[in-house]
Amino acid sequence: MTRINQATVDLVKEFEGLELTAYRDPVGVLTIGYGYTNQAGYGPGVKPGERWTQAQAEQMLAEGLERFGAQIRPMFTREPNENQFGAFVSLAYNIGVTAFRNSTALRRFNAGDTAGAAEALTWFNKAGGAKLRGLVRRREAERALFLAPPPVRQADPAEAPQGWLAALVWALAGLFKGGKA
Q: How far is residue 73's CA from residue 89's CA, in Å, rounded to a whole number?
């Protein structure tokens, strides 16, 4: 199962920004934390003038990314790598699950058209009918994450197999992958 990696969290944090006092976004949606809104479908909701701590914002972001990831995961007919999945989670977090489900980006990805899916990610750059520079930049960052090679996972010594022969094979495999056993 594909997980949400740190690159995804960092991307969402960068583009959502952190606001600890509720505010209205460019299209008038009441927002707080890292882009949390009442439309998110989870959490406590947000009221005008409400204040959060950074810890609350971090918690709601982690919960939101996991929830959005869980909602979009069944939509894939082929397995995305961590960076592809992260770019799609960031997109869905920003545009909503229904818009993501109906997106050309998802349709192209499922059809095996990776380059076309990357291009289609960039199309969601308008809010309230107006192209926003921040959305253009975010979609380019999502596209770059989507196209980046997935991180190489280092073997965890706690997962080392038992027995001398299995341990030797495990250690050699780690060396050939460029990691440390």
A: 9
Distance CA 167, CA 16 (A): 45
Give the active site residue among 16, 50, 66, 142. 16
- The label of the residue with tokens 């998110």 reads 40
Find tokens 């308008």 and name the residue: 126
List the chain residues with pLDDT less than 70.
1, 153-162, 164, 166-168, 170-171, 173-181
Q: At 104, phi and psi to the nearest 5? A: -65, -30
Determine whether 16 is an active site residue.
Answer: yes
| Residue that the structure tokens 């349709």 belong to | 107
First to last CA, the chain: 23
Q: Which residues contact 3 (CB under 8 A, 6 or more apart)?
A: 82, 85
